[in-house]
TrEMBL record:
Residues 85-241 form the Helicase ATP-binding domain. It holds the Pfam family DEAD. It comes from Acer yangbiense. One of its GO terms (molecular function) is ATP binding. GO terms for cellular component: nucleoplasm. One of its GO terms (biological process) is maturation of 5.8S rRNA. Belongs to the DExH box helicase family. SKI2 subfamily. Keywords: ATP-binding, Coiled coil, Helicase, Hydrolase, Nucleotide-binding, Nucleus. Residues 12-22 have a biased composition (Polar residues). This is RNA helicase. It catalyses: ATP + H2O = ADP + phosphate + H(+). Its main location: nucleus. The keyword Nucleus applies.
Length: 1019
């Protein structure tokens, strides 16, 4: 394909200027010398975890084979690789924890070669099907005796080396497959996936249930608690587990900041890991604030410098890529956290051409070789995005054949919404060095071994489903690890595009922080329980006892004991005079505060307050507390005053104003008072309410009033009102109003509060009772022997601290008790109760017919699907309708304004929701913690219409015209649907339902066709 490597040049040492030629030469020599020194100093940490009572043996497997290695490499191994291979030669398990692209696969290849030499079976598991396909291709080229099992594809299942997803390996173990009894080595790639919230539990199950005589190779990104993981494996499998850990990066990284609207790069962390604070501040000062003469905001949101509609203007991304190409920093991966933005940004590169003629020919050849696998109809498939950017649809409307011009320019896009075949073409082109600039989502950083010279982050904040947050140091390490190609680049370059003011501490945490720890994400599922109950050696309690979750919980006990001891010593060192009498007084004060709160809740309920919230009303407010740890023990809190400016009802979209009672609505009360304004690290303003006499500004603050009650910082309402001026915007007017408030308080120190009974008409019995008890307590305070004691306030604060320490000690001891008990013990009981009540198991825990069906379903919500099957719903439907209904189990993306399916399909969805509600309520009654509404909303009808059309025989381009979703997302959903149908075929077979079995097989034949199931290019 012609030489694709480019001549390397030294990177600029300062923020804006490149080096002169003599400087470059000197810089290169310095770098080479430094790299040589680094190579000599590369070390790794090697530790080993032994199970209790284990006696190490001196015999090694290598000795049995005349010390000849199972595999030799044409390059010198790094120390961590050599150490790991020694462990394998000794026949002992090893965990290799190293950075992305450090060369962990070398260890996996050795384990496979060793197993094949010894005529043993080896399993290689990976977290995703695409990675399994790639590894199969890679291993098949080197070792011919290799098979693949991913659920989608099965190739040579009797091979000595089997590549599979971790889910397939788990399933084989539950079914007691012959293969599991023959396995000598199991390789778990990307084992840090174990912390994944949804799928992580599969790794724990697979490791705990693994054959007792097998040995393991765990490959992981850097995790700070690798030793803890190895300790767990050693304990569960009663065998040594080595840890080989290295922080070494074969190619050192430089980290730059590109400020939004700026024109240059600022080096903030050099290749030695030094953080340059001065350069960081220069970068932030170079930020061009949006809106200051450079209309770079569209609907309040920066579009990476693109002016909507003004395509001619160069965006920040365009400037960035241009600079990367000029400085020969390519190939570059540009990470964005949104599929839509990936495409949008790539389209801004339309004018740029990064390839030579030979490369264009090669790109076209590879592209059409792949596309020849598609039918003529699928080649016309519109990858239209009209729904994404209506104003810029001319930029974003792309058909498969129109993707080619972009690729021929050396520019690609990679995200989960692309057609799988297109995604694989782009991966191959990138591997071959034909793509110089790739726009990708975070998923590109996982597993795929495709490094680049430069990595760019288009944003340093991401939406995590709940809020926008800074990306964590672990996420940054994972993605930045793609920078720097071993043996090609002297250093890798990471560039952060920053468009928010960022504190140096935040930047340091992100750029220099530790990798995320490997913590258990274990959770129970009904499929897991039923499979455990059904299998011969299965025992749910045993699985829980051996889980990494339980291991980590038990590990905390010594630390908790230590914490409790320190706190007990601190508490016992607090000597207080007349402690018993003081305790009595303290308890009376706590009662007094509690009663005051009860009265306040009654008085300040909207029912009584609403008629008195007119503008001009004086209101007593609690000052913002600065020291929460040092509470006040006087019976009066520190308060200030304000004036009600405005009072209005908060309307909701679905609210019926006419029928709702006033006290059942929510309100907002705007109050003028004195505040001190300050800013936090992110530039967010905070307002502290202070005394009228204190320093501060006269500001209006919003006080939300819910239908339940007022917030706690409102103390009382005055019976007096201040005449309201027409305009309160001028600062002087507001100052005069607060001055009038002070004068009123000088004349009436109490503030003339509204009398609850006389003015507000409160007659409730609970109010009268609380008032009488408060009066009784006030008389006790006056008579109490300790009340006149000197330094009473300080003594009470010391006692309060002592009481808090006692509460902390109790909490820690409670935690210790729960840690020593079996994790999930109560949930396990509750879930077993559900299975008994719904008829999945007998009272003696023998699996019934329903249970046998749910055992087979691991790719969808097993109980609801089983209930639908046993209710006869699936049997009564036409195949197309059944497939459409099942799509609700596999579609998880949230669509805005998704079109409703036709009436008959909507009726089916209603049946599904009714079944889901019944299942959820059964769980709730059995004391399983579940939100019924959230559970029901997890089934979504968004693609019912599209899947119905697909099952009816429509072409893929036709169904894309009736849905808003990304092509790749729909294909992934249909493939998951096929997976569920295959599981239902096995389920129907297990209970002898031949009619349903043939119906499910018919459904598979209707959906398994064309582009949706086009074979992977790696196979």
């Amino acid at each position: 394909m012609g030489s694709l490597k480019r001549k390397l040049i030294g990177e600029p040492s300062s923020s804006e200027t490149a080096l002169s030629p003599p400087q470059k030469q000197q810089h290169r020599e310095d770098d080479q010398q430094q790299q040589q020194q680094q190579q000599e100093q590369v070390t790794c940490l090697h530790d080993v975890s032994y199970p209790q009572g284990y006696v190490p043996s001196n015999a090694s497997e290598a000795a049995l084979h005349d010390n000849k290695p199972a595999k030799e490499y044409p390059f010198a191994l790094d120390p961590f690789q050599s150490e790991a291979i020694k462990c394998l030669d000794n026949g002992e398990s090893v965990m290799v924890s190293a950075h992305t692209s450090a060369g962990k696969t070398v260890v996996a290849l050795y384990a496979i070669a060793m197993s094949l030499r010894n005529k043993q079976r080896v399993i290689y598991t990976s977290p995703i099907k695409a990675l399994s396909n790639q590894k199969y291709r890679e291993f098949k080229e080197e070792f011919s005796d290799v098979g693949l099992m991913t659920g989608d594809v099965t190739i040579d299942p009797n091979a000595s080396c089997l590549v599979m997803t971790t889910e397939i390996w788990r399933s084989m173990q539950y079914k007691g497959s012959e293969v599991t009894r023959e396995v000598a080595w199991v390789i778990f790639d990307e084992v840090h996936y174990m912390r994944d919230r949804e799928r992580g539990v599969v790794w724990e199950e697979s490791i705990v249930m693994a054959p007792k005589n097998s040995r393991f190779v765990f490959l992981s990104a850097t995790v700070p608690n690798a030793k803890e993981f190895a300790d767990w494996v050693a304990k569960v499998h009663k065998q040594p587990c080595h840890i080989v850990y290295t922080d070494y990066r074969p190619t050192p990284l430089q980290h730059y900041i590109f400020p939004a609207g700026g024109h240059g790069l600022y080096l903030v962390v050099d290749e030695k890991g030094k953080f340059r604070e001065d350069s960081f501040h220069k970068a932030l000062n170079a930020l061009v604030p949006p809106g200051e003469g450079d209309k770079k905001r569209e609907n309040g949101k920066r579009q990476k410098g693109l002016v909507a509609g003004k395509v001619g203007e160069e965006s920040d991304i365009f400037k960035m890529v241009k600079m990367i190409i000029q400085r020969q920093y390519d190939p570059v991966i540009i990470f964005s956290f949104s599929k839509r933005e990936c495409e949008f940004l790539a389209m801004q590169m339309a004018k740029m051409d990064l390839t030579v003629d030979d490369e264009k020919v090669n790109i076209e050849s590879i592209f059409w070789s792949a596309m020849d696998m598609l039918s003529d109809d699928d080649k016309k498939l519109p990858q239209a995005r009209y729904h994404l950017f209506p104003k810029a649809c001319m930029l974003v409307c792309v058909i498969v054949s129109n993707m080619l011009p972009l690729l021929k320019r050396g520019i690609g896009v990679h995200h989960s919404g692309l057609l799988p075949i297109l995604k694989e073409v782009i991966e191959i082109l990138f591997q071959e060095g034909l793509l110089k600039c790739l726009f990708a989502t975070e998923t590109f950083s996982i597993g795929l071994n495709m490094p680049a010279k430069t990595v760019v982050f288009t944003n340093v904040r991401k939406f995590d489903g709940d809020k926008f947050r800074w990306i964590s140091s672990g996420e940054y390490i994972q993605m930045s690890g793609r920078a720097g190609r071993r043996g090609i680049d002297e250093r890798g370059i990471c560039i952060l595009m920053v468009d928010d003011k960022m504190e140096p501490s935040t930047a340091k945490m992100m750029l220099k922080g530790n990798a995320d720890s490997l913590n258990s994400a274990f959770h129970l599922s009904y499929n897991m329980l039923l499979n455990q109950i059904r299998s011969e050696d299965g025992n749910p309690e045993n699985l829980l006892r051996n889980s990494f979750y339980q291991f980590q919980a038990d590990r905390h006990i010594p630390d908790l004991e230590k914490q409790a001891k320190v706190l007990e010593e601190e508490r016992d060192s607090m000597i207080i005079e007349e402690e018993d009498s003081l305790k009595n007084y303290y308890n009376l004060l706590q009662q007094y505060k509690s009663l005051k709160k009860d009265i306040r809740d009654i008085v300040f309920s909207p029912k009584y307050c609403l008629p008195f919230l007119q503008p001009g009303r004086f209101v007593c407010i609690e000052c913002t507390r600065t020291d929460e740890k040092s509470p006040s023990f006087s019976t009066e809190d520190q308060v200030t005053w304000g004036v009600v400016i405005e009072f209005e009802r908060v309307k909701t979209v679905n609210e019926d104003d006419e029928s709702r009672k006033p006290e059942d609505s929510n309100y907002t009360m705007n109050v003028l008072t004195r505040c001190v304004v300050s800013k936090d690290g992110v530039g967010k303003k905070t307002f502290k309410i202070v005394s009228l006499k204190g320093p501060g500004e006269p500001l209006v603050v919003s006080v939300p009033i819910s239908k339940a009650r007022f917030p706690d910082n409102i103390i009382s309402l005055s019976s007096a009102r201040l005449p309201m001026p027409k305009d309160i915007l001028p600062v002087q007017t507001r100052e005069n109003m607060l001055k009038s408030t002070s004068e009123f308080l000088t004349r009436n120190s109490s503030g003339l509060p509204l009398d609850p009974e006389t003015n507000m008409g409160i007659r409730s019995g609970s109010y009268q009772k609380a008032v009488r008890r408060i009066e009784a307590l006030e008389s006790l305070f006056d008579k109490h022997e300790i009340a006149k004691s000197p330094l009473i306030e300080q003594k009470l604060k010391v006692l309060h601290m002592k009481q808090e320490l006692s509460a902390k000690i109790k909490s820690i001891k409670r935690q210790m008790r729960s840690s020593t008990e079996l994790a999930f013990k109560d949930e396990l009981k509750a879930r077993k109760r559900v299975l008994r009540r719904l008829g999945y198991v007998t009272s003696d825990y023998v699996v019934e017919l329903k249970g046998k069906v749910a055992c087979e379903i691991s790719s969808a919500e097993e109980l609801t699907l089983t209930e639908l099957m046993f209710n006869g719903v699936l049997k009564d439907l036409k195949v197309e309708e059944m497939v459409s209904l099942l799509s609700c189990f596999v579609w998880q993306e949230k669509l805005k304004d998704a079109a409703k399916p036709r009436e008959e399909l909507e009726l089916l969805f209603t049946q599904l929701q009714d079944t889901a509600r019944r299942v959820a309520k059964a769980q709730l009654e059995a004391k399983v913690q579940i939100d019924v509404e959230s559970f029901m909303n997890s089934f979504r009808p968004d693609i019912m219409e599209a899947v119905y059309a697909w099952a009816k025989g429509s072409k893929f381009y036709e169904i894309m015209e009736i849905t808003q979703v990304f092509e790749g997302s729909l294909i992934r959903a249909i493939r998951r649907l096929e997976e569920v149908l295959q599981q239902l075929i096995l389920a129907a077979k297990s209970i002898g339902e031949t009619e349903l079995e043939s119906k499910f097989e018919d459904a598979v034949s209707k959906i398994k066709r064309d582009i949706v199931f086009a074979a992977s290019l790696y196979l």
